[in-house]
Amino acid sequence: MNDTLFRIMKAILSFFLVLSQCVLLTGCWDNKELNQLAIIVGAAIDKDKNNKIKLTVQVFLPQSQSGGQQSSSGKAQVEIKSAVGTNLADAASNLQREYSRKLFWGHCKTYIFGRSLSEKGNLGRQIDFIDRHPEPREDSHLYVSDGKASDILQLSASLEKYVGDVLRKMSEMHVGANMTLKDFELMVTSEGGGALLPLIKIKHPNNDDRKMNVSPIIGGTAIFMRDKMIGRINEVESKGLLWVRNQNELPEITGYPKKGQTISLYLKRTKTNLVPKIENGKWSVTINISKEGMIVQNGSKINIMSKKNTKRVENYIEKDVSNSIEKALKQVKDGMKVDPFGFATAFHRKYPKEWEKVKDHWEVVLPDIYVETKVKVHVLEPGLSTTTLE
């Protein structure tokens, strides 16, 4: 009798155990099928009339990937639509009225802001929508257009499926600054408040102005103080800024021994270290940069197999790096009085008490800070060819 009762109790206990597990299996209650979504793959945000915001998006057309409806070039088909609102959220809501499917932001990895909007100083208000919305990703890439952002989305993509992919992959290869949503937010909320975004320009071919041959390029850097764009720098100055931030561009560096002669180094390792110092009331920063690489092209008459000449090559490239940094410091630190270099963070960490005294007027202190640049380049491999074939 006791054995029978034990088996009954065991069965009842097993039943309730299985039942309790079923309660946890809620399933994909909020799952959305692809045929219910309008997938955004690129977005451009511009300033419109009456201080309104114009949102332009590229929406992926899934039918282009189905049987027989893909484009002859094999590229994904997208359609471009725009809507205007009082802010980005309102513009997105108005845009939704034009689609029978729900707009989905989860695959949008490229956000381009127009220059006019960026210079107005309310970029943070628009980024707030991207940051708060549950679908956009914090590793999405941000850009500033030299003109209207919507014009960039109108361009045809070379090699990639759509223009947003072109820009994103260029950034990931470190062609110019590589800035994600998370990176930008960390910079604008940092001690100095200086920030940067890659600047997108439209390149027109010399021999053909047809729209299909026009392409976007990263043509410099937009400089921000908090969420307001206050200036821009060219490609050379951008290299200097990125080297200070230890965010190298493409791995090749070219030095110029003489006019018409060049030597190029492919970087294998690079490191940047900022050393702040306060002595007798004077503030200074030493930028220590070390680079190692191999010579990939010798466009000079220098015999690079000689150790003495290898040292000369290292000096040429060190000078080129230092010149780029000096130009960036002159334009941004001294001219714009903004700090995207990370100097404020370095001082805050080493001298927290002194930083508290100047943090509210850092733009006044910054131009007076003495900056010393120390660049050390080491050629690991001179290569097999010693001189040019002349």
UniProtKB/TrEMBL annotation:
Descriptive protein name: Ger(X)C family spore germination protein
Xref: PANTHER family: SPORE GERMINATION PROTEIN B3
Spore germination GerAC-like C-terminal domain residues: 220-383
Pfam families linked to this entry: Spore_GerAC, Spore_GerAC_N
Main location: membrane
GO cellular component, one term: membrane
Transmembrane domains' residue ranges: none
